[in-house]
DNA sequence: TAAGGCATAATGTATAGACATATTGAACGC
DNA sequence: GCGTTCAATATGTCTATACATTATGCCTTA
């Protein structure tokens, strides 16, 4: 048996999603719901609070509780870790390191990550799904934020996968764009020059500190970002 | 002043994110936290419950409460409504209808949406940011699920924006990919043939019923999906 | 009539106590 | 030794109550 507060919550949520309760409609007062379901006010409150936090309802003192206007501005999708995604669909994953250097920040991009003269790790590599190159990656790691990274062998291990497990991130910014493969990218991904590529640029923070910056270029004909989202 | 339960919650969350509490570590028992913060058990519980739901901690009867292993598999991003996004960055939005037909489903794609012989609305159009065409859209709407759509004038209004406000969706599936513009797309978006485009394919459900299918093709040089995500 | 004050009614937060439920670990019996 | 039982313990849920907070709308007053 589900807890009472969850039954009430599910009940109200269902009424909203089905359209029985429309945006702007007032939901019964807490004391009315108490009588209706035969529970205490704390239980009603525990049912309504998550609906408020999820943005489905709005609660105003003295006035009551109302169904919110639907949020127009977003849907949500997952961007999985490449390694995880490849193994999840039953293919074997392999990372191949192409280049690896450690030096002091001296470009704008590097200074933005690690500050002027900060120590950074720059590496490029390829992600393979079975025998096929799926993505080219160029990654910068702020070694002041993640000093352990200097001791890890990335010739086989994906740096992104390692970082996700070791460094707890608090903020991520993704940019997804499309570009046409130039010569070097085409060679790496074994596609024709002029083919379409899907590009993910990702910047990661831990609290205030920048952790890593990565550009991942996917073969547009072989890769799609697939995302499902269930409301509620 | 923040509520007590939130202070406690923030405090514990901070300890986890900073690394002071590591995965597997036991968090003090509720009765210990009661003494530590000088609050009742309900308040402690109200602080811990959201951390549990967010997946940061795991609670086991008799054993106690523990810091969870970090989830490796996903990060989350928003895909905004085009119209909302354009107006949000201060440009004027315009939708231009290119074609509009209503007929019975007769292709595989149409049958998948509305069933065999179901009534569907098919339209194509362009989204403009100020004077520039930003995206080409081809949309199928299941008129059995959204009969009102037949009465709406889409010559100026974006069908996606209208649908979002009118039809509460429960499930969305997005596919993001990259392609090279062929002749017609290039002409519509006023870009060179062979330029890169970002493509979003979206399918929307309301409960079990399919609502709409849309393919949006963006000028890859002018558009990026930008997504930020804050942990917790 | 308009500005301001005030009682009222709703949600917001917190307490103490009760019983339910699940799991651990020790005591017990074979 | 090994499995079983059982009490202890921590979380899960719910109640009844109390006081805080805030916006409403009436009522008073200039």
CATH superfamily of the largest domain in chain A: Chorismate lyase-like
Proper CATH architecture of the largest domain in chain A: 3-Layer(aba) Sandwich
The level 1 CATH classification of the largest domain in chain A is: Alpha Beta
Q: Tell me roughly what share of residues is in helical segments of chain A.
A: 25-40%
Q: How would you sum up the major sheet of chain A?
A: 6 strands, antiparallel
What is the gyration radius of chain A calculated from CA atoms?
24 Å
Structural summary, described in words:
- The structure is a homodimer of 232-residue chains.
- Chain A starts with a helix and ends with a strand.
- The first copy, chain A, folds into 2 domains: 4-67, Orthogonal Bundle (Arc Repressor Mutant, subunit A); 72-226, Chorismate lyase-like (Chorismate lyase).
- In chain A, α1 (4-18) packs across α3 (41-53) and α2 crosses α3.
- By secondary structure, the first copy, chain A, is an alpha+beta fold.
- Chain A has a 6-stranded antiparallel sheet.
- The first copy, chain A, has 7 helices and 11 strands.
- The longest helix of chain A has 15 residues, at 4-18.
- In chain A, β6 and β7 form a beta hairpin.
- Helix content of chain A is 28%, strand content 37%.
- Chain A has helices spanning 4-18, 30-37, 41-53, 82-88, 108-114, 159-166, 183-189; strands at residues 26-27, 57-60, 64-67, 75-78, 93-104, 119-129, 132-142, 171-180, 196-206, 209-219, 225-230.
- At the A-B interface, α1, β4, α6, β8 and β9 of A face α1, β4, α4, α6 and β8 of B.
- β4 (75-78) of chain A pairs antiparallel with β4 (76-79) of chain B.
- Chain A binds a DNA duplex (30 and 30 nucleotides) through residues 3-5, 29-31, 39-43, 45-46, 48-49, 59-65.
């Amino acid at each position: 048996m589900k807890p009472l507060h969850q039954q009430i919550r599910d009940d109200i949520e269902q009424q909203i999603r089905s359209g029985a309760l429309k945006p702007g409609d007032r939901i019964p007062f807490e004391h009315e719901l108490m009588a209706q379901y035969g529970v205490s006010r704390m239980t009603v409150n525990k049912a309504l609070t998550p609906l408020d936090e999820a943005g489905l309802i709005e609660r105003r003192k003295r006035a009551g509780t109302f169904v919110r206007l639907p949020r127009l501005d977003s849907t949500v999708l997952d961007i999985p870790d490449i390694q995880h995604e490849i193994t999840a669909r039953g293919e074997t994953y392999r990372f191949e390191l192409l280049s690896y250097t450690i030096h002091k920040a001296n470009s704008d991009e590097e200074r933005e990550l690690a500050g002027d003269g900060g120590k950074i790790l720059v590496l490029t590599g390829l992600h393979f799904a079975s025998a096929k190159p799926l993505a080219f990656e160029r990654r910068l790691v702020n070694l002041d934020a993640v000093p352990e990274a200097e001791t890890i062998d990335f010739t086989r291990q994906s740096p992104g996968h390692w970082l996700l497990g070791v460094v707890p991130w608090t903020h991520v910014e993704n940019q997804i764009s499309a570009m046409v493969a130039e010569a070097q990218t085409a060679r790496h991904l074994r596609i024709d020059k002029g083919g379409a590529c899907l590009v993910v640029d990702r910047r990661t923070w831990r609290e205030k500190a920048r952790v890593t910056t990565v550009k991942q270029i996917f073969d547009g004909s072989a890769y799609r970002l697939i995302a499902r989202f269930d409301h509620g």
